[in-house]
Design a protein that fits this description.
Alpha-Beta Plaits; homotetramer; about 350 residues; 2 domains; elongated; TIM Barrel; alpha/beta
């Protein structure tokens, strides 16, 4: 159920609706829009009676939501969501005309490696830095990340280079630690249906980057996001990173058609990871161009100062000079679509 | 690296090898076999020098393990593992000649429902009871299980009906609670690569039922088990429950060829879940027969006293009388393969 | 539209219905059943008026068919079809209580090889011999079969060993040749939607073995069979041979759940090919057992007198002694299901 | 084996090499390049001795080809192939800087419909017209195309609108007919491994558009093309049209990563079909942009004057005004990559 307020409804009208929902034992989700506010309801076991709400002051109408996901749906909020990341002067947004570039190594391996990567990607135009401190690895015997030490290095990267930090959190307890350092909490593909973790990041104040699972349908992907929103955190950025198919020329099959499909159903921004999506360095730039051309709101790319020495994912990490090339090429594609890269800090100050 | 002891090696010889491994900063995994003990080594960043060990008393040879998984591998332990479940008089084993039947509802919904299900499946011959208290659901708005209340009902089921309890744990913290009640900790398909959870159940004293992920390759499946063994819990039962493909006549595609494939590479037992594997009630019995025929060590089946009223998975749950039919049919197939159902408690008393 | 005749309807009543259908410009498909005859109609662009037929003598009712496939459907013919193969004294049936075993090499390589294989599989109990004379190969540079020379060798095998011949036809023109030699025309997986070939075998007098395509849904599989029946050849045997998925431990993923799914929707028999279905010799026997346990009507298995010298598919071909083992094991499973192998010629003389 | 000639080798030198290959019982495939000619050899059962050729006049070296495909490989021909289509003044090329746009309805339904479509797509900038006269349909009861009547209409379209004709051929016999009318012979996805048809179009003088099969790996796709080249027809244009996966938000999953993968291994041009690749009208334009951005050499798009009345594929056909929009958008993307649309006839007169 969605309660759509009249354009002239007052803040008190909205609060009255919320109080009524709470009094019924359910949870209200006020979602302010440019024209008017809507209030989503979750927690109700079945359909509610519209008349219960339509008689309240300021209510335009009460409508039933036809999809299994509600808060992520365009039925509930038609305008694109702008997800703001960072704070103070260093803030930017996912989901608007400006495209976001997240770049950096698969894992933080050392202060030197992270700084070398950060310097290069910053110079090339990235505004966000990726790097894992806690790495979910297929093998228990593989490098699992530097842990909190890695997080501290990431915090230094932010201070030194003005890059916002995107890093992965791997379980609810670990999230307590990661959210102290990160600007964006990443939930990895293998955890897309780790519902305990989804609920935990749903209670965080930090925006969440949610990667699509290896065999997730569109509906499951949106439902995973719904878990996060239903806990109160509306700042979710989706990420397509390839799905698992029979095809063996790439590590995963990048499903770019999911971008317009998400855009049609949801107001959330979605970016693309061409590094995991292909698993091969020489495919990253072409697929990055395609991702922007299809309408993605940004990219997350693995860049390593010395890919051949990387402790993980070296074969899919770009050399820094390749990343510069990528930025140039996707920037040109972006302009065709009347979008720009949010690479220049001053350009974002306007927001 | 695997240190194979001579048949006549003493316990002290084994301990000496373990101490040496620890002194090198790695972790020893002594694995006693019928003929002789082997000691696996994990934690070493690269290959070790065999001569370091072959000169120690009681050591037959030090061999390199060629697979990425070690402890789960037949290279390290050639004989089938017998995983003992339960305690006291109520104990049975997975992986021997006797096949294990786990049956019960998708979720514990109430004391009445659980008792009704338990009575019927016990009478039909099941020795283990399944039922979720914490349910990972695709939608945040679906029934998520009764929580600890559900676990208490399961404990009552054990006391009343002599059934051993298999129930799911969904995150590391939750595991503290679940292991107090369960005889077998289930890790669900969506959590197969939730490595924090795998490590946690790897530190439990309770056996673990590990379900194959929806898009897990055989190697990833065995690596997930390796996570558990590498933490010291060698009591892992694998479970095939269908994978995700293009085929749409069943909810998942049950991949029965993985049973002989696992048997070839690993000493761990593997069972089959024909309920999730097909998602359709009328397919459960035929696929259960096929699972036993292909060589599985048991079955886990959803049975509900009133499937049409089930809060989850009703369409794939058997009616109790269908479960009786299943037991009869798979029992007959088992006899052809010179195996029996471990349905009669006295039959297991021998172990 | 399906015209169901009354039990006491005369042959003339049936003919009258057929003439009326023809007069309307459509095609009648009379399908005699144990109780009564039904007449399917194809070629009609949209639904017909039941009253047009229900007023004719001998007609019980005219019912609309709800599936896109008609003639293969249980809506049109509820009883299992018995597909008779061979002629004279050497005849057997697919789809009854007796299970059919088809065995032989991937390709006919020489008279000696074919005879050696035939002798062994005949002795082990097979009644049908497989062997390709025209091989559809992924590479243009691979052995493509002996052509008509291979067909002549197959005819000799029939004469000498009393085995019925199953061999592949690869295009409409080629079918003219193959049907002169074969007892059963095989349409391979890669040709499952080669509609020109389907129409051509649909005009043949010989039964057709139709293999499921590598990525065919159940509906597409049944529609491919419908093509054959719609041309007038109702003698179609379906065959599951594995589908293409991400799983890499077998060459294909054998989808045994399709057997009960076909049985539910169609009256046609279905057999299983565990050789292509797994692509690995050591998986063939376990999956053959599972195929019979799940309810398949028979098996088609690759057996080569010297697999290590085979010109194609050697790694998945059984040694003759393994085939004997397979026959013994699946025979025991069959008895549990109250079925028998149609291996003894005299046993089939009754039909 | 590949015989690389010296840059200064004479025509007679090349002929001498070919004669020698023929004398050995194999088939020579001379492939002239900008710098020098190479001669591929097919038909040899195993590796040949390089010295046999390296001693002949004009031969630079004889090298072994490491891939299972040879003639399609960059090992054999490193420069991109330019596939010329059409004749006389109306000629254009696939694989160069200019991108090719093929547009038109799924099937030719009538002269009026074909002319209406042709007029619109011609005006929007397409130079090639698609339209099926023989339609491979999943159901035998669906519209199967107008047959030769449809081909005649296509020939009229060429005469009237100056559009080159791309149309499907469905079996070897049918190819005799289709090649009399078509400028490009299309082999559909379901026939990608119909080897009889591949061999037949391999003996045609007309270029071939080969669509990737629904579950074809990259290697199988290139091997299918190899069939055509090995018969002597080197004019093959590849086409990605989506593969079959678990994902259900589009009819197929468009695998754009195959474009750079093909470019790396093969000299053949490859285009993209975003209509079948998505199966949904609103996804066609975004994926068309992505296809050009990733590096495809052109597009084949379904456009219907009245999609809602189409006899097939109406839901994925663009309205004519949407096609105009598509041309504009992909043209802008093309310019970023320093390519142009070959939409203006005069621009192509240069070739």
């Amino acid at each position: 159920m969605l309660i759509v307020m009249k354009p002239q409804a007052t803040e008190e009208d909205v609060k009255r609706v919320c109080r009524k929902i709470e009094a019924m034992g359910f949870r209200p989700h006020p979602m302010p829009g440019a024209q008017r506010t809507a209030v989503g309801i979750t927690g109700n076991p079945g359909p509610l009676e519209p008349a219960e709400f339509e008689t309240l002051p300021g209510v335009a109408e009460a409508i039933r939501v036809s999809k299994p996901y509600k808060l992520v749906s365009r039925e509930v909020k038609n305008e694109d969501s702008l997800i703001r990341v960072g704070g103070g002067a260093n803030v930017l947004a996912f989901g608007g005309k400006e495209l976001a570039l997240i770049a950096g190594p698969c894992a933080v391996e050392s202060r030197e490696q992270a700084f070398a990567a950060a310097e290069r990607v910053r110079k090339a135009g990235a505004r966000l830095f990726r790097g894992g401190a806690f790495k979910p690895r297929t093998s228990p015997y593989s490098f699992q990340g530097l842990g909190e030490e890695g997080l501290k290095i990431l915090a230094e990267v932010r201070d030194r280079f003005g890059l916002l930090i995107v890093t992965e959190t791997i379980d609810p307890e670990n999230c307590d630690l990661v959210e102290r350092y990160a600007d964006v909490l990443q939930v990895g593909a293998r955890n897309m249906q780790n519902f305990s973790l989804l609920k935990r990041v749903g209670r965080s104040k930090k925006p969440v980057l949610l990667k699509r699972g290896l065999s997730a349908t569109l509906e499951e992907f949106l439902m995973a996001a719904e878990y996060i929103l239903s806990e109160g955190n509306y700042n979710v950025i989706l990420c397509e990173r390839g799905v698992r198919t029979f095809a063996d020329h790439t590590r995963n099959t990048l499903d770019l058609s999911v971008i317009p499909a998400v855009k049609r159903l949801s107001h959330l921004p979605i970016i693309v990871d061409p590094s995991h999506g292909t698993g091969k360095r020489d495919k990253v730039i072409p697929l990055a161009r395609a991702a922007i051309a299809v309408g993605a709101d940004g990219l997350i790319v693995e860049v390593h100062p010395e890919p051949d020495r990387a402790l993980s994912d070296g074969f899919q990490s770009l050399y820094p000079e390749q990343f510069e090339e990528l930025v140039e090429q996707v920037g040109a594609i972006a302009r065709v679509l009347d979008r720009t890269l949010n690479s220049a800090p001053q350009a974002n100050a306007r927001r």
